[in-house]
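Example A, followed by Example B.
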Amino acid sequence: MEIRGEKQMDWKKALMYGSFAAGAVLFLTGRKPAGLAAAGIGLATLASRHPEKFEELWRRMPEYLDKGSQFVDMAADFLEQMGEQAEQAAQSGLRIARGGRS
């Protein structure tokens, strides 16, 4: 539908993208419950606007969760290794500072 030669703003699309963006910002700033709620609004809007895409997303959800879980596990392992290396480096620095004595 056009109004005075301009396309009418699609409010569902704006709500969907705005909710996802707000959810991401809130989640990254530590406000996880509010971020999940905002993302849920975006997801509900997506489901009402594109039921076929939502059905595909829902069908593939276990695959996405598995990949996300693998990513989190890899990140946790990496951070653990970095912590161990930092601890070893700190201990080595202490030995050097003491003149090689343990």
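Example B, a separate protein, is given below in the same form.
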Amino acid sequence: MAGRVALAVASLLCASITSVLAQTSTTSYRAIFTVPASAQNGLPVLPNINDPQAVNAQDVCPGYTASNVVRTPYGLTASLQLAGKACNVYGTDVDTLNLTVEYQSSDRLHVEIVPTYVDSSNSSWYILPEALVQKPTIDADADAVLDSDLNFVWSNDPTFSFSVIRQSTGDVLFSSSGYKLVFENQFIEFGSSLPENYNLYGMGEVIHGLRMGNNITRTFYAADVGDPIDYNIYGDHSFYLDTRYYEVDATTGNLTYAANATNASAEYVSYSHGVYMRNSHGQEVLLRPSNMTWRTIGGSIDLYFYAGPTQDKVTKAYQTSAIGLPAMQQYFTFGYHQCRWGYTNWTELQDVVDNFAKLGIPLENIW
């Protein structure tokens, strides 16, 4: 009897609560958003390099004019002013720039162009911290202005340009003559002429033939992907080595540039130099038959020229001044390493190790 009473009371309480809730609240339902299949499709973006209607900055931008040139113990400084109306083609033109030229050692020349007015609000756009990427500096014992084989020459005709010349041969290693300097907050462009059938190497990390060729566009934008041909991999070095061959006149000793150094009976000598662009923004270099164009979407123009004149001297100077020497390796790392992407389980891995042993192939490491 007591149980039936308790059940009845509980039923009344439940009904009462339900009635109160029904009078004081309502239930509503909202539509749940579902991502449509069309979200998989990106916008049809065409790179400027492939867009015939894209504006050519060289056609519409005014370039700069140098003034206030001041000699320094190791080079010079100057101001660069827009030489006309701002073009603002892919960003906002920077009105005033600072040029710094430093003969940092007997075989290294530094050319830097940065905005004049940089503060904490925009320094990250233009200034690459030395804590992230080492910045080559003037050697402690340098008297490089006097003994350098590199010579910096500039001109304002028709707008600011500069050339780097090897004094011992008179060879022009880099020349922006005929190209306008474009410097905007999201776009920088400058160019240089190159000799016929030039030999450029570097600008990695990309799977490509050792010699880059004279009709490619090399994009620097680390993608962290495995091994696509001619596309970005894990990192990049915005550095190139330029090697030029010359025929030697047996009577005078004069050198003549050899565009096609393939004559087995001819006597050639070679000179190499290096160019390093210290910039960590997305970049691209257009290599064409007679010139190169360098573009970046940020940072500054921070160039280092290495005189060489041999490949090993260029490489050593680049290592010791900019990126450091390779790390010393443990002894086992010089043995045979086997690696691949896609081992599915330990059993498959063990089979590979066992087969190496069965066939008598030395295996130092597998990963």
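On Example B: Residues 5-10 have pLDDT under 50 and may be disordered.
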